[in-house]
Amino acid sequence: MLLLVGTIPMEDMPLTYGPVRYQPDKLTIGDYTLEGQYVTLGTAAMISSASATSQAIGSDAPYALVVGDTGMGDGTMKLLKYLVDEMATMKPGVITLHYILPTRDPFINFVNTAHSQEKRPFLIADAGALLNAKAVKMATKFDLFTPDPGEISFLADPEAAHPAYVQHFIFSVDQTEVPKLSKDAYDHGDAPRYMLVKAPTDHIIVEGKVVAKINTPNIPAMEPIGGTGDTITGQVSALIDSGMEVVAACEAACKINRTVGELARPSPDTTIAQFIPFIGEAVKKVLGK
Question: Given this model, what pLDDT does residue 286 score?
């Protein structure tokens, strides 16, 4: 079972757990339905993408554990406590953590609980979860990170406990620096075995070394669209959960995401909500499903 975890920037969304079903303009998680802008906002974009991918490849529906959190951190605490208390019952095969607020002991408890399971889940982190894993020195306990070049800069700085304090200015990272930064992060113990670095040229990293680069289809208009990194994370999560080998899943996710851009024909005002409906078609085109 694929379990997708993260906060949604809503004040009134309760802790919600259940199977996921994406439809354009609607995302159902258990008995709760997100509509409109919330379907493709942050964690929800990742969940919608994973659901669309699972539907296209004929896999079981993923499950999601989400809660509203507008920046106070109370939602994050609820998520991590639920995971610790219920993981043995849920028995997820893959857990992907997305947007969460910084926390120390609850996060460490979650990771330790995952590693104590009879069958340890494959652990993926993106966004806030990725940053938190590095900050509390738990990066090597994960299996896959899906950072962008700015996040790689944070991972590569052994002294930085927060992205604001990175020595290498994160907004000026050139993608040609990705191989060195990835190696530095792994050598310092601040990266897991696998990384999918999302950039104009996507890099697949294994134990700090580049094993594949994906740059086609090349759709420059995708770069400014907020959420396209979230969709890759959802896609690779679904593919790994389906049994695909990790590097192959990373490569396929990159190609699927780029093919979505090719199909959507984005312009500067295209939103991620217009992007996700093409995932099913892109999966079939790339994988021949």
Answer: 97
Residues 6+ apart with CB under 8 A from 237: 2, 4, 46, 50, 62, 94, 96, 124
The predicted-structure confidence for 181-206, as pLDDT tens digits, reads as follows 999 999 999 999 999 999 999 999 99
Question: What burial class does residue 285 get, using C-beta atoms within 10 Å of its C-beta: 0-12 exposed, 13-18 middle, 19+ buried?
Answer: middle
Q: Provide the b/e sequence for 63-82 (b: ≥16 CB within 10 Å).
A: bbbbbbbeeeeebbbbbbeb
CB 240 within 8 A of CB 248: no
φ, ψ dihedrals at 58, nearest 5°: 80, 25
Q: Write down how long the chain is.
A: 289
Residue 275 or residue 164, greater confidence: 275
* Token pair of 129 as six digits: 């979860």
What's the chain's Rg over C-alpha atoms?
A: 17
Amino acid at 267: S
Alpha-carbon distance of 32 to 63, in angstroms, equals 12
Rounded to the nearest angstrom, the gap between the alpha carbon of residue 220 and the centroid of all alpha carbons in its chain is 21
228-241 vs 246-264: helix crossing angle, rounded to 10? 140
pTM, whole model, 2 decimals? 0.95
Question: How far, in Å, are 15, 89, 276 from residue 196 at the CA level?
Answer: 29, 30, 20
Q: Please state which CATH class domain 2-287 belongs to.
A: alpha beta
Domain borders along the chain are 2-287
pLDDT tens per residue across span 61-108:
999 999 999 888 899 999 999 999 999 999 999 999 999 999 999 999
Residues 205-215 pLDDT 10s: 999 999 999 99
Pairs from 37-40 (Cβ < 8 Å, separation ≥ 24): 37/273, 38/8, 38/10, 39/273, 40/227, 40/271, 40/272, 40/273, 40/276
DSSP type of residue 9: S
What is the tally of helices (H) and strands (E) in the chain?
10, 11
